[in-house]
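Dear H.,

Thanks for agreeing to be a second pair of eyes. The structure we're designing against is below in token form, covering all 168 positions.
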């Protein structure tokens, strides 16, 4: 059977990146389940930031560090709250900001997961080397997108007024 996305080469870049991400996340989820640990892949970045900084952090601050959307961090952190891993409170200096901090259960889980995360890191380094230093290529992709967004690249190929596109 033909690999539909692969057959499109660079034209299917987004689909291929999503597929690789889903495969890696799915395997990570399987590892946690095999170890009897209830943990969602989307929690990892938030938990790591809270562990590494060892202080309450704003949702927006975590989003900026991870370079993901505020909405993604907010949604994942609400799930983490329901699981008892983090608590949130309104920032005293700005009522619009929500500060997250690890609970005792979150700290215990992070400590329990550290050896497992080391195995994840070792496997990722191995996979990256086998793939020919994909991380370097991803850095170059990020740099190219920083120079010119996909949005701008697409608009240059079609007759669409950017102001009209932003309004939709």
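And this is the sequence the design step returned. I haven't edited it by hand at all.
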């Amino acid at each position: 059977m033909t690999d539909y996305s692969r057959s499109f080469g660079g034209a299917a870049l987004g689909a291929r990146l999503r597929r690789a991400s889903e495969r890696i996340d799915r395997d990570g989820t399987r590892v946690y389940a095999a170890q009897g640990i209830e943990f969602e892949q989307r929690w990892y970045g938030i938990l790591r930031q809270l562990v590494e900084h060892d202080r309450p952090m704003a949702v927006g601050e975590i989003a900026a560090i991870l370079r993901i959307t505020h909405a993604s961090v907010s949604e994942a952190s609400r799930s983490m709250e329901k699981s008892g891993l983090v608590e949130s409170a309104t920032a005293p200096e700005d009522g619009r900001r929500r500060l997250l901090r690890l609970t005792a259960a979150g700290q215990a889980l992070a400590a329990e997961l550290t050896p497992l995360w080391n195995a994840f890191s070792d496997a990722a380094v191995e996979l990256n080397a086998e793939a020919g230093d994909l991380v370097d290529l991803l850095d170059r992709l990020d740099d190219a997108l920083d120079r010119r967004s996909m949005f701008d690249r697409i608009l240059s190929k079609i007759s669409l007024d950017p102001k009209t596109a932003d309004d939709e």
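Two observations from my side: The chain has eight helices and three strands. The longest helix spans residues 104-130.

Warmly,
E.
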